[in-house]
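# step 3/5: fold
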Amino acid sequence: MTNRRLRARPLTLSILCLLLLACSPPALAPPTQRTLSVTDWPAYGGDLGGQRHSSLEIITPVNVGSLAPAWTYHHGDVSDGRGDVPSTTAFQNTPILVGDTLYLCTPFNRVIALDPATGAERWVHDPEIDLSARYANQLVCRGVAAWQDDGAAAGAACRRTVFTATNDARLIALDATTGERCARFGSAGEVDLNAGPGEQKWQGEYQVTSPPAVVGGLVVVGSAVSDNARVDAPSGVVRAFDARTGALRWAWDLAPPGFDYETGLKSAAGYALGTPNVWAPMSVDAARGLVFVPTGNASPDYYHGERSDMNHYGSSVVALYAATGEVAWHFQTVHHDLWDFDVPAQPTLTTIDVNGRAQPALVQTTKMGLLFVLDRETGEPLHAVEERPVPTAGAAPGEVISPTQPFPAIPILARDRITGKCRELIESSRFDGMYTPPSLQGTIIYPGNAGGSNWGGIAVDPDRQLALVRTSNLPWSVKLIPRADFEAEREAHRGHEHAPQIGTPYGMRRQMLVSPIGLPCVAPPWGTLSAVDLRSGEIRWQVPHGSVRDLAPFPLPLDWGVPGLGGPLVTSSGLVFIAAAMDDYLRAFDSESGEELWKARLPAGGQATPMTYRVEFEAGGARQYVLIAAGGHGRAGTTLGDSLVAFALEE
């Protein structure tokens, strides 16, 4: 595949059938009636609290089998890293629908406005990022955010604003109607986020991949930092800017309390270096004036002996006062994280029944397959959490190990025990359970830094009190390498991932444990979809998710469950929509039983989270659409593409 930027265009019905391999029933012709109104999806997670829930009930378990492609849009921004764009792309976007317009961003950070009924293009804004840079976290844009300035006159420019943050670390404000830059915001409509966090050793070491959070007239942004390269990586500071002017209003530095800013590693702007960063989406409780922040772990990932205090806020859910950036409370999901088990997903805000009382709650999924349910106002667990002893033997000399880790009463949703295949690979490494320390011998990390849940997060059905959770069971091997041996080891093991971890005594080698035919070195299922009762904490059902059709080197239509990246959508009608798996399908499940009811072949990997909305037409009638980004994931090796596909019932 060559890198390309193609002119966006709707597909003809015949070509659409060929690409989707789902021509029965046929693709639906776009309606010609004028749109009267829409039921919107105003934020990345459906609402500011990220429930990924819709009250729509047009599509039901009874008629979902009649879903067919309604329209497809192609954005053209694709790279496999082998052409003039050295970074691969991952189309992880979930569009938002505000007013009567869909807004999305591409891996190249172009922002596009579409008609929700037809997919017709309304405007495109290209921030012209430097595509020659080597971005540490690929070329990714998960979503944009919208804000309405109620103090502006009706019809005024930028009364409704779309905010986007870019891979080259800029925050840009656009007029939602025209796509033109908001001149009053920052400098010519943008704020340079590179100023402050610290020197970058290469362009792409510091980027922004998730949508901003908007609350109280402020735009809040985190960052994605290459956190295996060096101890003094750019700061993970979280910053809030005035939504009208772009002026900096506050900055939350993730350094531990008592950090010595006189002698400690810090940027020219005074922010501590090597702190945890916040790369996943944030959530907002506007009524309580809180921003909920999921944090990563300190740099570098797998050795913290010299800076063990830097993980004070690492791998945590942190509640910040939106007006000031001060910490209201924080809850740590991993103590002294040495496994790259950072909190990868948007905290989900919902209300659950506790002893007959409606309790504002926060549900946080993790890479370990653990689900924490917390009091939204205090951070205290609503389902018991206990500190359990974990392995400490075999750690690298100089490392500091936490003797216990927090485990919720809710059962583990991913596997934490090795069984099955690739015995030689497994027996040559240490594995004493989930928290076995990284070692010089080599340690198996399981469910792994890409296991459990990831940035796709969960969906919550507030009526049924169910959390729908997608998890992967994917083992990795991590080996610490003494500094003097690092270059020779890297040369001897070309093709594996290596990181220098400069400033520590050890470099790192990391590899996914797969068999000679490319399947994970543990018994299936390698991917599951689970429903958890948030009142009792019990697993209501768990089913394999995904087939090996697009994973193995030969087609096997076996639904063994495969790894994946992306999250679910749940509707009040009783449906769970999810792609995510490393096969090219969008599926629908019954939320009560877990039964698969429908699936459709996608033109590329669906490593994204779907959304849904309803369009009502002036001539009468309404349609519910389910929308999924199908563009694949360059590093995961799924089918690359540039499609945004909308499904609907036949008219």
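# step 4/5: annotate
The chain has one domain: 28-648.
# step 5/5: archive (pending)
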